[in-house]
Amino acid sequence: xxxxxxxxxxxxxxxxxxxxxxxxxxxxxxxxxxxxxxxxxxxxxxxxxxxxxxxxxxxxxxxxxxxxxxxxxxxxxxxxxxxxxxxxxxxxxxxxxxxxxxxxxxxxxxxxxxxxxxxxxxxxxxxxxxxxxxxxxxxxxxxxxxxxxxxxxxxxxxxxxxxxxxxxxxxxxxxxxxxxxxxxxxxxxxxxxxxxxxxxxxxxxxxxxxxxxxxxxxxxxxxxxxxxxxxxxxxxxxxxxxxxxxxxxxxxxxxxxxxxxxxxxxxxxxxxxxxxxxxxxxxxxxxxxxxxxxxxxxxxxxxxxxxxxxxxxxxxxxxxxxxxxxxxxxxxxxxxxxxxxxxxxxxxxxxxxxxxxxxxxxxxxxxxxxxxxxxxxxxxxxxxxxxxxxxxxxx
Amino acid sequence: xxxxxxxxxxxxxxxxxxxxxxxxxxxxxxxxxxxxxxxxxxxxxxxxxxxxxxxxxxxxxxxxxxxxxxxxxxxx
Lengths: 395, 76
Description:
The complex is a heterodimer.
Chain A: E1 2-3, H1 15-27, H2 38-57, E2 66-69, H3 72-83, E3 89-93, H4 98-108, E4 113-117, H5 124-134, E5 139-145, H6 157-166, E6 171-174, H7 186-189, E7 193-197, E8 209-212, H8 251-267, H9 269-288, E9 293-295, E10 309-313, H10 318-327, E11 330-331, E12 333-335, H11 340-345, E13 353-356, H12 364-394
Parallel strand pairs in A: 1-11, 3-4, 3-5, 5-6, 6-7
Antiparallel strand pairs in A: 2-8, 7-8, 9-10, 10-13, 12-13
Helix pairs in contact in A: 1-8, 2-8, 3-4, 9-12
Chain B: E1 5-7, H1 11-23, E2 29-33, E3 43-47, H2 52-61, E4 68-70
Antiparallel strand pairs in B: 1-3, 1-4, 2-3
């Protein structure tokens, strides 16, 4: 199988990640942060090493700023529902995933409103201006994706965070698609809340995500419970990261995530980005030279996009193309990618699109095989159409 | 010598504190505390048998929330 659905979850995982997960199941079988026996402390040490690795990777103020979550979506929910109250206003981009939009719709019932700022691909000045225009007196948060999970369009989050800070508004960024690929520096960027998936560009196992923030104590909690600390109190602890880690954490997943972050660091984040972009540029060149392929975005350029490319084939539904590619042994994601806003942006809300996302392990041969498969699908479709036409003529 | 267990509230801060103290050449160990001096229930602390006062000051200066000091629980 040629796996090109890495925007959903990267596969395969690096060998070091698989080994780390297996080792955790053997060596770190006790709850971290709870008991004081040797294996519990060893588990806690491993979790702490991952916090340090993540804090260092994103240049967060310290390991205590890293709370492990189920995924990026749960981190997003912690921020939105922990910060916003009736009468509050939020600025989001027009490319947000449902991980952001569905919690906002749920919050609308309690009087939270939002404005979608338009994104201008390749023109950061206009994008930042759109965010400025969207700010209101009651804006309590700017929340935007770092890179669209459908089109790869990259938002100037550092400039947006600087703008928001001028108005005293905190910024949260959905880094589901960018963590491990695009540069993210919490100290330099002024991002207040960073939500990341562990199982995508950081090459960790599924069931891992992170909320990274120095302001966790300011968020109300969605989930309360045992943290192994302050047990006599019925109040949820205010300190990070325990405030957001009630119950037993995903110990094997966190161990795998640490190995994944280490893999990205050792391979080189920018090297992985360049590799994936070069693959997509080759694919883009081939697709744009193929009659019947509908492309929506310009040639991939790391200044303006993350390595995600979506397209359609003329006269075919995206799911039909996805199925046909699947029959050729190529795994892609077709449809709406849980991001109707992003599809509305390019007018693909009705038919969706076929999304291609390579990983560090993808090759130019994978791209050539995909291109050949796309051309074969188009050819079959064309033959079938011609056949139907001749049948009609005979009738 | 004084009470050698510095209570810091969470295992995360205990481990961070241990790392900070190591940079100052102070040996320490992370240990579980069943009941804190302030009666807050389970917690974690940093056992610092030597230079404890200095260690506490370093931790406070470096932003580690210190909740108090206690005797180390007797190990059987």
